[in-house]
Amino acid sequence: MVSGMDDKDDPHNLVALEAMSSLSKLLDHVEERDIQSMLLHIAIRIRPFFDSEQPELRLSSIVLFGHLSRFSRGHCELFLEQILNGLVPLLLHLQDPQDPQPDVVNACKFALRMCGPSMGCEGLRAMFRNHLQEGRSLHYGEFINNVCKHLMQSYPEMLNRLLLTNLFYFKSTWADIRAAAPMFIGFLVLHVDEDHCQQVDLDQLISALNLLLKDPVPSVRVKVAETLGRLVRIL
């Protein structure tokens, strides 16, 4: 099934979709020792599908990632890097344009709940467990604000990586994601301490925000303007 995700003769990723869905089912029936050696390979292979234009691929890959994280809890150092790499897309896709049938949103909630215990931050684990229950409404801005506060307390050295990953989503085809990414950046900057501000490439960040300020969607421009205002604290 892992090989199926690398099928070069599968232009529409139908084999990959079936492989990811089937792997999620199989993981309920395997022992941890049997999957440990493959965890990283599978996680790296499915990561590009998080942003697929096909909602079925986003859904299956994110659910599979959540199931994989369950096997990482006794070996956090091996899988933590993959969790941190996937954190931004999982949080941004809580605003996935799948609504009003939020299957992808619920998949992100599931994956984040499963990842929480491996992150070494009780605040994040509790937030993911309490606020990301399927069917429960979420005040997204308030939630991301609190997530960023915990991230900057527990992983301040991650600031630049988190900023760069969010910048990638400024070019998303989905307006909700384009609005969420600058908001995410603004809250990171709001909560970072002075000792880690030097990680921020202000010229690059301001240039990207100014470009996004020309977005045709008003809600995106509003979030960009709010973020530009928050940059004052690190000037």
Task: Decide which structural class fits the backbone.
Answer: mainly alpha
> Beta-strand level of the residues, as a percent range?
under 5%
Number of strands: 0
The helical percent reads: 55-70%
Mean pLDDT: 89
Characterization of this structure:
This protein is an all-alpha fold. It folds into two domains: 1-138; 140-235. The chain has twelve helices and no strands. Helix 4 runs parallel beside helix 6 (103-115) and helix 10 (175-191) packs parallel to helix 12. The longest helix is centred in the middle third of the chain and has 17 residues, at 76-92. The radius of gyration is 18 Å and the shape is globular.
